[in-house]
Design goal:
Layout (H helix, E strand, L loop, with lengths): L25 H6 L19 E7 L8 E10 L7 E10 L6 H17 L5 H7 L8 E2 L5 E2 L2 H15 L10 H17 L16 E2 L6 E6 L2 E4 L9
């Protein structure tokens, strides 16, 4: 059906009827009172208690560690539509040199969380921030282009933990394949000792797919021992 719009559009709202279906709890069935699914939006008030997780970031760019805390709200608790969503984020550190931009970043991110909808785009936006002075390698050989990108990595870990993002874990066959490749490489190198705290052979190069210093030359082909990426297919 065509509808003619005769007035100027000042705003809009997407309505999904599936989000307004009643929750069939035992108590509501007994009383006959209908209920609707609670969704994340700006009108949702902060409860007295939130569930939180704190992540530690130790970067060579800072003398002191950063502690990132993400607090979640549980919507529709005890119903089939129960879900956990991020509500606010805080970053604390003894280092006060970057206090202003850290406070600004956390307030903007918290506002995006409370706005509702899909907030997973923040992960890619933060991870795409590069420090003009250059990045650094974390323990384990993972390359971080900036401290902001590492905050994005922390947010990604949290969203995976609460089910908003899918993980990138390798399956059993891939892990077995990488273990065999790694054993073969170490045997060919005469069991060269690993670099302290690295976990991958000394002299490994940076992988352009997983940003981990785990690429070695095997049988004339560059192979990543972390994600399995290889130029030879």
């Amino acid at each position: 059906m065509t509808v003619k719009i005769t007035q100027r559009i000042k705003g809009f709202k997407v309505i999904d009827e599936t989000l307004e279906r009643p929750l069939a709890t035992a108590e509501q069935q007994a009383t006959g009172k209908p209920a609707t699914v609670v969704e994340m939006d700006e009108s949702l008030q902060r409860p007295e208690t939130l569930i939180g997780m704190t992540y530690k970031i130790k970067s060579p760019l800072f003398e002191h560690a950063l502690y990132v805390t993400v607090n979640d709200i549980v919507l529709n608790a005890g119903t089939p539509h129960e879900q956990r969503r991020p509500f606010e984020i805080f970053i604390n550190s003894k280092n006060m040199d970057h206090f202003q931009w850290i406070v600004a970043l956390t307030r903007i991110m918290s506002a995006v969380f409370r706005k509702g909808g899909d907030c997973t785009f923040l992960v890619e936006e933060l991870k795409a921030v590069f420090d003009p002075r250059g990045g650094y390698l974390k323990k384990g050989g993972v390359y971080m282009p900036s401290i902001v990108a590492e905050i994005g990595g922390v947010l990604e870990r949290h969203l995976i933990a609460i089910g908003m993002l899918e993980g990138h874990e390798l399956d059993e066959h891939q892990l077995k394949y990488l273990a065999e490749k790694r054993a073969a490489y170490e045997a060919s190198q005469g069991a060269v000792a690993l670099e302290p705290g690295d976990g991958f052979p000394a002299g490994a190069q940076l992988c352009n797919k997983c940003n981990t210093q785990a690429v070695v030359q095997m049988d004339g082909c560059a192979t990543c021992l972390n994600c399995g990426n290889s130029k030879c297919g």
